[in-house]
Amino acid sequence: MFDNTLKDMRQSIIDGAPDTASSLAQQALAGGIAPIDAINNGYVPGMHDVGEQFAKGQMFLPDMMASAEAMRAAMAVLDPELRKLGTERPMAGVVVLGTTKGDIHEIGKILVGTLLTAHGFQVHDLGVDVAGEKFAAKAREVNADIVGVSALLTTTMRSQKGVVEALEESGLRAQVKVMVGGAPVTKRWADEIGADGYAPNAMAAVELARQFMQQKSQTVVELL
Ligand code: B1M
Questions:
Q1: Contact present, 42 and 6 (Cβ < 8 Å)
Q2: Is 203 a pocket residue for ligand 1 (Cβ < 6 Å)?
Q3: Closest Cα partner for 150 from 89, 209, 105, 83?
Q4: Does residue 48's CB lie within 6 angstroms of at least one atom of ligand 1?
Q5: Does the beta carbon of 186 lie inside 6 Å of ligand 1?
Q6: Are strands 121-125 and 146-150 parallel, antiparallel or unpaired?
Q7: Is 119 helix (H, G, I), strand (E, B) or coil?
Q8: What is the pTM of this model?
Q9: pLDDT in tens, 164-221
Q10: Structural contact between residues 99 and 150, judged by C-beta atoms closer than 8 angstroms
């Protein structure tokens, strides 16, 4: 029964059907499927299929937009459930998050923000198409521990470097860890642009953020 529901979730994304995606998410919660399983094993595979079909010219931009709408409808149901977990934990760290300049892909970034929140991080999501200076200004305003930059296009991943540079220019680089991610991003790219780390998915982003916080507290202990 779980397998069928996951298959239907995947299909609802391929079909670009927000109502179906939303009611399947409600059914999943009622039936005891963990929200993160529904996302990772139901909806996200649907998004991958859509991406592949788009790349092959079998789907077009309006189809991809409809699929994104369906994904958002499912997330609107699942997101509050995931977030609830975070309110029961001590604050783990402050994160400024956004999708880089020129890029409007937001679903993966929202997922990263939701899981960070669910694991006790305070997340300030700047949205999409965010310039490096804006990341730096927000990091200063909220005294961020981590800046997280998402990019989904090979063209816009270059702007992730601009975020590292903006933090350097504003004198914040030493106190802020930079995490990068998104489909075309790799560890090698992260090293090349001087980021502190790369996470391939939302759960790995939580693990990396935790490692950053451990490193930061060790540095404080060493300084004392
Ligand atoms: Co676009 N798009 N898109 N798109 N889109 C891709 C990325 C593409 C790979 C499709 C393809 O050709 N196969 C391709 C990029 C090719 C490339 O650069 N190599 C592409 C293109 C070409 C475009 C346009 C240029 C199309 C056009 O206009 N001709 C255009 C660009 C617009 C712009 O940004 N300026 C465009 C537009 C769009 C829509 C608006 C229609 C829509 C986005 C809607 C929205 O987000 N509100 C869209 C979509 C939906 C996709 C695909 C199909 C799905 C993306 C997605 O949501 N995935 C995508 C194909 C694909 O990726 N397979 C595609 C699900 C999400 C959960 O995964 O985002 O990878 P993802 O996030 C993961 C990890 O990457 C990681 O964790 C997440 C969860 O596990 N992660 C991080 C992400 N950010 C992280 C940050 C971190 C750590 C981990 O730390 C900070």
A1: yes
A2: no
A3: 105
A4: yes
A5: no
A6: unpaired
A7: coil
A8: 0.93
A9: 999 999 999 999 999 999 999 999 999 999 999 999 999 999 999 999 999 888 776 6
A10: yes
